[in-house]
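Bit of a strange request maybe. I'm writing a small parser for structure token strings and I need a real example to test against, not something I typed by hand. Could someone generate the tokens for this chain?
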Amino acid sequence: MEAVIEYLLKSAGVLSIFVFTYHFLLRRLTFFQANRWFLFLGIIASIAFPLIEITQTVYVEQPIQQYTYVPQQVATPMAIMLEQPAIPVDTPFDYWQLFGFLYVTVMVFFIGKMIVELSSLYRLIRSGKTVKSGNFVTVTLSR
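Reply from user aminoacidic:
Good idea to test on real output. This should exercise your parser:
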């Protein structure tokens, strides 16, 4: 689930860069075909770029640790664990789960809004007078 959300965020980021570039730099130009190709390449880049993973390996030299032997502390690892009190482990807050919940909530809101608007449009069409002319249907409303 986290990988899908991460992919969607990266894809939306790349696509927003292309859209902002188009909006602020290319929108008023009359090279319509070039603008279409730019936006098409933006869609392709938003699909492909999040799949590219760039990693860098850093080698860190470990410091040399010196151990001293103390005869009074001879015990097995299990005995040392049993002597220590149990520490409750606090689970950290999962932001990815919160983001997924917010994403689904917003998605359900907009789908509900679309359903309400489509039903309103359907009621408008049903209340008007329809005239069929060829392949088209004309709806006349009193409002």
